[in-house]
């Protein structure tokens, strides 16, 4: 008997490579932390928060996302936030996560770098112990701020590198894209590469294909976050296919931020069928209406993805992970075993 599409997706082993931990802050936890920390929110109820999540573009979301993050103050807050995400990931059979975090959002408010690292890392280490969920942390620079501020952030975080060597694997670039091209950060990326960090960057979410070229050639990234506008440039598409450069695509995010009008118009399936190494991810699930399986299900239904294609997406997520070849082989074998038995 063949199982339903939902059950097939639920059981499929997968990796999440594009998840902003601050974007997993559910309104209920936002309220609880606001109360714990004596922070006044501009909302009367959880329902009012949810109602405010009607975005017109990336910036309209970022304004609320940064305001919401202000409730995160103590080490325990960062632990609770990350632990709540871990529960969702495990429920969706996410086997590995590489999460983004934005230290500048917190240090500017007087929260220490140590508090941020420690709370997130404690939850991730507990997740490994309790659930076998493996993970990495990718420190993102806020691109609306200066490169000097990014350099200062990297230098400050380096004091903690040894303590978090098991988790902190890379650096990334997020926040408002248009007007902040990747090349603005070429020096801090050169430094990060010299320090043997993995490097990724958001590009081609709202920004033009030139920003994807900038991330590839200017920053020498190993994955592109989003990258959906790459399709507008056929030479770039050839480059992505030939190099098998992974794109961490976030379908429900693109829908909520009006990058696409309708999920049926999303280019995920077209890019997959053209041979691009695309993956499915949740980005900021508390704000965009769904975690990993919700993104898989919505995409599968809107784009008529076959089970083979869903398996390919899961395979891509493990191939694109920052892990040892042995670890990847093990995951890929699990995906193969799943396909063979379902
Ligand atoms: N920060 C959190 N989510 C983001 C996104 N989708 N794009 C850019 N910056 C972000
Ligand atoms: Zn993102």
N→C terminal distance = 9 Å
Q: Which ligands occur here?
A: adenine, zinc ion
Low-confidence blocks of residues: none
Give the H and E element order: HEHHHHEHHEHEHEHEHEHHEHHHH
Describe, in plain words, how this protein is organized in 3D:
- There is one protein chain.
- This protein has 17 helices and eight strands.
- With 342 residues, the protein is of the alpha/beta class.
- It has an eight-stranded parallel sheet with strand order 1-2-3-4-5-6-7-8.
- The protein is globular.
- The mean pLDDT is 98.
- The structure holds adenine and zinc ion.
- The site of zinc ion (ZN) has 6 residues, from β1.
- Adenine (ADE) binds next to α4.
Please outline the helices and strands.
Layout: H1 5-11, E1 14-20, H2 27-37, H3 46-52, H4 58-68, H5 75-91, E2 94-101, H6 103-107, H7 113-131, E3 134-142, H8 147-158, E4 168-174, H9 186-194, E5 198-203, H10 209-218, E6 223-226, H11 234-243, E7 247-249, H12 251-256, H13 268-273, E8 278-280, H14 285-288, H15 292-303, H16 307-319, H17 325-341
Parallel strand pairs: 1-2, 2-3, 3-4, 4-5, 5-6, 6-7, 7-8
Helix pairs in contact: 1-15, 5-7, 8-9, 16-17
The structure holds adenine and zinc ion (ZN).
Zinc ion binds near residues 20, 174 and 283.
């Amino acid at each position: 008997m063949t199982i339903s599409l939902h059950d097939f997706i639920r059981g499929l082993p997968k990796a999440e490579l594009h998840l902003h931990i601050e974007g997993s802050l559910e309104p209920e936890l936002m309220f609880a932390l606001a109360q714990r920390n004596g922070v006044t929110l501009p909302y009367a109820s959880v329902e009012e928060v949810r109602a405010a999540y009607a975005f017109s573009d990336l910036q309209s979301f970022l304004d609320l996302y940064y305001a919401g993050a202000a409730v995160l103050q103590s080490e325990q807050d960062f632990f609770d936030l990350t632990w709540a995400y871990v529960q969702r990931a495990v429920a969706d059979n996410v086997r590995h996560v590489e999460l983004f975090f934005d230290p500048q959002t917190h240090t500017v408010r007087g929260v220490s770098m140590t508090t941020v690292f420690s709370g997130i890392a404690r939850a991730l280490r507990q997740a490994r112990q309790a659930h076998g969920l493996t993970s990495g942390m990718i420190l993102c620079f806020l691109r609306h701020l200066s490169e000097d501020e990014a350099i200062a952030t990297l230098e400050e975080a380096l004091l903690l590198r040894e303590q978090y060597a098991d988790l902190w694997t890379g650096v990334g670039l997020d926040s408002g894209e248009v007007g902040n091209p990747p090349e603005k950060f070429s020096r801090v990326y050169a430094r990060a590469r010299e320090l043997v960090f993995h490097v990724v960057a958001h590009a081609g979410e709202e920004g033009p294909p030139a920003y994807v070229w900038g991330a590839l050639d200017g920053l020498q990234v190993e994955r592109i976050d989003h990258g959906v506008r790459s399709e507008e440039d056929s030479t770039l598409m050839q480059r992505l296919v030939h190099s098998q450069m992974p794109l961490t695509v976030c379908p429900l995010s693109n829908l909520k931020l009006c990058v696409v009008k309708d999920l049926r118009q999303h280019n995920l399936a077209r890019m997959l069928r053209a041979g691009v190494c695309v993956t499915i991810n949740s980005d900021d699930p508390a704000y965009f209406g769904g975690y990993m399986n919700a993104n898989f299900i919505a995409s599968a239904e809107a784009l008529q993805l076959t089970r083979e294609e869903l398996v390919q997406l899961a395979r891509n997520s493990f191939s694109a992970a920052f892990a040892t070849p042995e670890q990847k082989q093990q995951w890929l074998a699990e995906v193969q075993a799943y396909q063979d038995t379902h």
